[in-house]
Amino acid sequence: MIEKLKKAHPITLVIETLGMSRSTYYAKLNHEPSQRQLSNEKLSKKIKNEFFKAKQRYGAPKIHAQLLRQGERCSLKRVQKLMRKLGLRSIIMKKWKAKSSEAANDVNLPNLLKQDFSAPRLNQKWTTDITYIHTQKDGWCYLSSILDLCSRKIIAWDVGRNMETDLVIQTLNKVVHRASHGLILQTDQGSQYLSNAYEKRLNELGIRHSYSLKGYPYDNSAIESFHASLKKEEVYQTTYTDFEAAKPL
Length: 249
Prior knowledge:
Blueprint: H1 2-8, H2 11-18, H3 22-29, H4 35-53, H5 60-69, H6 76-86, E1 125-135, E2 139-148, E3 153-160, H7 165-173, E4 184-187, H8 191-194, H9 196-205, E5 208-211, H10 221-233, H11 243-246
Parallel strand pairs: 1-4, 4-5
Antiparallel strand pairs: 1-2, 2-3
């Protein structure tokens, strides 16, 4: 800035306008950027590149992980500080909550998982949930997903026009070949998961049903977190014209 002012105005006027002494003026004019400043400038360019390459979806933790994969040596705290300085914030939209009918809150429903999300082998513990996706023509549609807590990967999913028991059973039927006797499946207390038809199907497969406490998402946080990331990084960035457009996700 001082360099630009110097070219456009007399030195005396610049000094008076900035309210500094002549020695301070020349010190700033002749200042050479430090290695840290140069490093920050270089890193800031990489951060901006990764941020906009991800369509403004990534926050500091994911940007930091991307930089580490590229061999960049920097701390998460430094990335956070530079992103604040650059005014870069990931796109966040408030989660929409639908009003659903109250299901009976049976205090005897077992919570077998008790927030122990560790699983030493595949098909030992699964977790499932439903989330909402909006379309322009058909209104809301519903994504049902099942996640294996060992691999932390989605092993089955389905999209339906209605949030009914058939949707969660259809999703479950896609992975019946994986189900082993004694496998634990964590769900919330939604009416779909409390239905007789769903319980019957689980019993047929030898799957043990574990329930989250009512209104307590931390008991099912793994699948809740996946759906939150999916909506932030994909769904909220896309306009779905109708059900068919949303179905492939």
